[in-house]
Each structure stands twice: as C-alpha cells, then as structure tokens.
Amino acid sequence: MTAQLNLGTYAPNTWCPGCGNFAILNAFKTAVNELVSEGAPLEKFVLVSGIGCHAKIVDYINMNSFYSIHGRTLPVAEGIKLADKDLKVICFAGDGDAYGEGLEHLIFAAKRNIDITMIVHNNRVYGLTTGQYTPTSPLGFKGRSTPQGTKELPLNPLELMLASGATFLARGTSHGIELLKKIFKEAIEHKGFSLVDALQVCVTYYNMYEYYDKRVYELKGHNAEDHNEALGKVREWDYNTDAKIALGVFYRKTAPTFEEKFVKTDVETIDRSLKIKKVLKNSI
Amino acid sequence: MAEYSILIGGKAGFGIDKASSIIGRIFNAVGYHIYIYRDYPSLIRGGHTFSIIRACRDKIGAHYNKVDFILALNQDTINLHKERLKGGTVVIYDSDLVKLEGLPATVKTVGIPMGKIIKEENANEIMRNSCIIGSLCRAAGLNWDILDAVFRKEIAREIEPNLKVARRGYDSSGELIKIKPLAQESFPILSGNQAIGLGLIRAGLKTYIAYPMTPTSPILHFLAEVSEDFSLKVIHPENEIGVILMALGASYAGEKAAVGTSGGGFCLMTEGLSMAGMAELPIVIIVGQRPGPSTGLPTYSTQSDLHFVLNAGQGEFPRFIVAPGDAEEAYYWSAVAMNITWKYQLPSIILSDKNLGEGVFNFDINSIKDINEENPGAWDRKGPYKRYLNTESGISPLAFAPDKEAVIKVNSYEHDESGITTEDPQLTVSMQEKRLRKEKYLSEEIGKYSAVNIYGNKKAPVALLCWGSNKGLCVETARNLGLKVIQPVVLSPFPAQQFKKAIEGVDKIICVENNATGQLERLIKFYGFDVDERILKYDGRPFSLDELEEKIKGII
C-alpha cells in the first residue's frame, strides 16, 4: 500500500477554481507518494519552477524547491544535477516559460541528455499576465497582445524535442489524472532528459476542456523505442489544425547522460594548496 | 641600467603571444622581474599584433612607450612603432620581408634572412618567431643555454626544429649589448586571469561556468586545462543567462561556483544576479572590462563598468565588489570574494579588465597574506529548518539537499523565512531589511582587510588615486615623482573610513582612470570626497609610464 506522505504546505492556493494545474499538482503528489513508497528517498527530490501560474506549484508542495525566474528552470536544474547526480531534479515550467523565454535552454538540455524531468504546464496562453498568445497557441489566436489574431503558426514542442535529442517524450492532459500520474512516474524514473507536455487547461483565458475531451486518445501498441514511429505520432497533431491528440509515451531511448561524464575525485584543501604550488613551480 | 623593454610585432597567427611569453621567461631566468602588455586586434589571422615585454630589477606592472628592442616580423612593426625608438634601440628584423627606411642613425639594426633560414632548415613559417628570439638573445649578450632551457620547457611540439631555427638566428646576429644577469630569485609568471583562477581554487572552487568572451575566456581555458588536477567541473553552456543560472543551481546544492564574462555577457547575467540577491545564493562573478558601449573594442581595455556592476540588477540588495590591481591581488581577493559570498550569501563580483586579465606579471605567493577556504556555519538542527531564518546579522544558516531533516526552499519572489512566497507588507519589509542588514556586518569585516592600499611617499601632499590595473603604473610613477598612491581595492561596500584615513594630509588628489567620465571619482563623491585633477584615457590602451609622468608634470 502507498504511504500517504503529507506533501502539502500552509501556502494558500491561489489558482482559479477549475484550473488544470490542480490535476498536475495532484497527479504529481500521487506519483511522488508512490515513488517514495517504492524506495525513493523524499529528500533527494528537488523541484524547480519558473514564473507563471504553473510555478506556484512549488509553494504548494513540501519538498526541496528552487522557485526560479521566467524561462530559466533548466539551467538551474542542470546546475543542481551536476552538483549532485544522485538528486532527482524535476522542473515545472509553463509553455511561455519553456517554449518561449527559455527555449534555448530547453534545446540544450535535450541535446545534453541530462537526467532531468521537465513537466510543461502547456495551457497555450499566458495566464498570470492575463491572456496573451504563447508559442503553442494556434494561428489566429486572439489574445490581449494580438486582438486581431496571431499571424504565426505554433511550434510543435514534441517534434522539436525529438530533433534536439530528448530521450523521453510524453503528453498528458489535466483531464486524465490517472494517466498523468503514470506518465510522471515513468518520466521521473527515466534516466536522461524527459519532457512531459501536459495539456493543462486555463479556465479563465483559454478553456479547452471540451476541445481536448473530443480529440484525445491514449497511445496503444505504439513502439516508443522506434524513432520513426515516434516521429509519426508526434506529427499527428501539430498544435494548430484539428486532429486526433495522442496521449502517453511517444519516445523512449537509453543513452549516456551528461552528468555521468564528469569524473569526480575529491581534493582536500591541503591537497589543493600543494597542487597550486606545483602549478606555480611550473610557471617559473 | 637594469631594465629593458622589448617589442615584438607581426600579424595575428605569427605566434607573437607565445614568443613574448618565451622572451619574458628568458629574462625571468636571468633574475629580472617582468611585465608583458599584449596588444592584438579582434581577428584570427592578419592585422597587427604586438607585445611589449618589460624586464626590470624591481617588481613592475606597467610599460614604457620607448623600447630598447624592436623585433619586427613584418613591415607594420617598423612603420607603426617608430615613435617608440630611442637612441641605441636595437631593431632586429626579417630582412626577407622588412625594409628599413628613415630610421634615426642612432638605431642599431640587425637584419636576419628568416625566410631563407626557414627554407634551408625545412621548418614551419611560424618558427620565424623562434629565429628572432635567437637573434635577440645573441644581440642582448645572453648565453645560448638560457634560451635552450626555456625553449625545452615552453615548447611542447617540434622542439628540435624550433631550436635549430633559433640557433641560426642566434648565430646570424652580433652581440650589441651585454645584459647582466641579476642575482635575484626567479618568480612564477602568471597572467591576471590565471591568478584569479588559482585564487578561486584556493578558496574551494568546485564549478566554473562561462561562455567565451574576451578578456575572461583565458580563465575558462586555464581552469578547463587544470580541471582534473583540482577536481573541477568546468562547463561552457548555451549563453550567459544559462551560465549564471547553472551556477546558482550548483550553489543551491552546496557547490562553490564562479562564472566569468565581460560587459555584454554580464548584461545577460543581471537577471540572475538579482535572483542571487533575492534568493541569497552565493556566487562569484568575474567581470573583465573592455571598452563599450556594446561590442566596442573587444580586445582592448577599459574601466568603464564600475557603475554598471555597482548598480546592475533590479531591486536593492548588497553585493561585494573588489578590483584587484595585479596578479597577487587577483589571487588573494578572488579567494576572499569566494569566502565572502558563502559567509554572507550575497553576490561577489571581481572587477577585472583586459590589462589585468591578459597582462603577465611575476607572482610571489609568499608576499600574499595567508588565505584559506572558509566554510559557512552549519544549521544547528534545532527546530524545523528555515532557509531564510531572520537572524540578527541577517545571515541564515545553510543546509543542502539531500537532508532528511530539512526541506530547503529558495525563492525569487519575496518570501517568508521558510521560502514560501509572500506579498504581506510587514513580511516584505522585514525580509528586505534582513537582506540589507548583511551589508553592515560585511562592512565591519572589510574594515579588517587592507581595502584601501597606500603606496609611495606616504607624506606627500599630492596623491594619485587609482583602481584596478592602473596600480602598477601609478605606484611606479609615484616612486619616480615622490608622490603618494591611494588604491581602493574594495569598491562595495565602499570602505569610506579607510579611504578617509588614506587621504589625510593630502592637499591634491589626482584621479587616474581608463574611462571617459571618471567613474571612481563619481563613486567617492557619493561618500563626500572630491578629487582635484583627473587624468583619463579611454582609447582602449593602457597608460604608459612616460605618458602618465608627462601628464602629471603638466599638473603639479
């Protein structure tokens, strides 16, 4: 039986009623509960968030956390992971955060295949700044910065991540908490860079519950080890035109990770002093 | 006269830098102190690159315009440096490439057919630099053995052909002067950048993160090279934003981290700097100044970012800023900067510039006060852990993940003692005051250091006020003219008490800076101090001793 850790904090929850973030929070807490009951030490988890509605999640979970700045979850997480590769580092980022402001970091983290899990709360709208389009909003999206509709196509983050070298790619929705929890667990347990695109619904600025409910289906019989098959499935929906929206794990690959390539030898202070003297001797 | 200046010049790609380093080591081997100024344009091949190697009986950190030797590997080296000739200057040149015309009769010349020599020895074109070093040694009356030993130590690849070509250069020249070896100890030779790296290592550096940018890239290269010896992680990420945020992540996990950049990269780092201020995460940032605005003169030097680093980042938070003046100070204060950032949990900035970072100095570790790695006080494990416990000093005890008894939460938002976001007005005030309070305690500690240095004639009524890489220049000029020198090393928190003491008995302060607006002058004005005269230079090049002396004589 799963141990019931109390992972809550005293921080008052300020998400809108019906916000898709609740599902992500609950699915994540359940996933952690299960992982801990299966033997993962709770103190070895570190959560990193960006800025936006999503980011408040770290205030609501009583675990180690680094509430960072907009777009910068990944470099922070990479610094933590490189400092101690035994830590389980999990990022929560919004779609504006991960796919806009911090896109360069995202591509490089995938390229390095550093063992970090990136959970993107993808509501396809800026919530906290009150309703502007994001990199995954569909063409023509009418937000407060684009009242006549956007003039650019969205990007397909999963396709981009596949091209960049991510070794675990999945999608879930905030209307499907059981699947979301399962995906989170798998992503966290995956060794390498894992990204979960969580289609989270913003009830205030872009309520897509009905739209998604009509189109989503769970991947069955999909070979996630096959790059071509993964690419095909990833391209099935381009975040713009109407299509079926697959949920589940698209891609999974075993590959060397960045952090394990750093060899660590412990150098004591006294040792350093002697070695400095050696460097100086060679500089005469 | 126990001092010599040697200029070696050619195109980028001629191995000027390596040659100047070898010449420095040859003089070092015969007991001279050396200083090397490197001047190169922002390109990989072509252009005009030169170095001035100055060798002296005393410790030095500046150069003269006039030189005793010009080693010309191309025509530009003659054409562009005629004003540096003086009576008796020896010009050694590649007679296959360079024409000497219109030189004063007092100049002695040595033409060496280097193209021919390279061809006959079947050597590589770049070895003309070895050839000219050979000629220099002979012309200067230095024994072949000295060259042989330095070459064998400094040249890793193709040592034999290099020696052969150097020997031809040696044998083709006559002995024009006789340099007297000095019975002095030879000290290690370091660039300011290497000294910064070693100082950080001394104070426990574990992770160095940087994106390449002149003039601090050599720190990245140096630390990457010694990373295995010192168990360092050296990382070159996607951009400077990634650099500083990665370092803050490492810092959260308890690893001593530093980053290095120049003005443009520091622009990108400012959001991370401000986060370090709010989240109280230790970090050392090296800012090597080069002339701006914007790309400016990428390979030249300036002191125009003082107010940028003093004020960078949104919001109000304390910071430690130090501007070392030579290799020893670079080593010592880099170590101090690391200790302070961990003790006070506020950002430390080492403000360098191209002249300090890429300048080459003798380094005497025994002249430096002992400095050790200091570790911040650990959490006492009483009660629940609070990352931002509001203590009397403002300093909260640190804990690092994984810790079974502590949940460690850091936050860029305003936060309570546990690190949970708050917008409460009273809490906002008390946490802001907590962070600012640390500066008071830091100021007290700075009082125990020599944060304002005094040199020269301490009773002189005229003082040169300088900072950073102008230290060596001003100390030597003051010695020649009987003046006092005042050099504030710590610039934030500003050591106003020490500064006040330093200017006691001074009637006239002449501020010497490499910028167009007098940035140190502006800083001290804020604390109620005025300067009487200013000597500013902002063409990207350092002052030479003769140039500064002349300017001062025009004032006093």
Outline the fold blueprint.
The complex is a heterodimer of chains A (284) and B (556).
Chain A: H1 21-37, E1 45-49, E2 65-67, H2 73-83, E3 88-94, H3 95-101, H4 103-112, E4 117-122, H5 157-164, E5 168-173, H6 177-189, E6 194-199, H7 209-215, E7 216-218, H8 227-234, E8 245-252, H9 269-282
Parallel strand pairs in A: 1-2, 1-3, 3-4, 4-6, 5-6, 7-8
Antiparallel strand pairs in A: 5-8
Helix pairs in contact in A: 1-6, 3-4
Chain B: E1 3-12, H1 16-29, E2 33-39, E3 46-56, E4 69-72, H2 75-79, E5 90-94, E6 108-112, H3 114-120, H4 128-139, H5 144-154, H6 159-172, E7 189-191, H7 192-202, E8 207-210, H8 217-225, E9 233-235, H9 240-252, E10 257-261, H10 263-279, E11 284-289, H11 306-311, E12 320-322, H12 327-344, E13 348-353, H13 354-358, E14 360-362, E15 409-411, H14 425-446, E16 452-456, E17 462-465, H15 471-481, E18 484-488, E19 490-492, H16 496-502, E20 508-513, H17 519-526, E21 533-536, H18 545-553
Parallel strand pairs in B: 1-4, 4-5, 5-6, 8-9, 8-10, 10-11, 11-13, 12-13, 17-18, 17-20, 20-21
Antiparallel strand pairs in B: 1-3, 2-3, 2-14, 7-14, 12-19, 16-18
Could you give a quick summary of the protein structure above?
The complex is a heterodimer of chains A (284) and B (556). With 284 residues, chain A is of the alpha/beta class. Helices cover 33% and strands 15% of the residues of chain A.
Largest sheet of chain A: 8 strands, mixed
Q: In terms of quaternary structure, what is this?
A: heterodimer
Strand tally of chain B, please? 21
Q: So what's the overall shape of chain B?
A: globular
With strands numbered from the N-terminus, the spatial order across the biggest sheet of chain B is 6-5-4-1-3-2-14-7
Largest sheet of chain B: 8 strands, mixed
Give the beta-strand count of chain A. 8
Poorly predicted residue ranges of chain B: none
Average pLDDT rating of chain A: 95
Q: Strand portion of chain A, in percent?
A: 15-25%
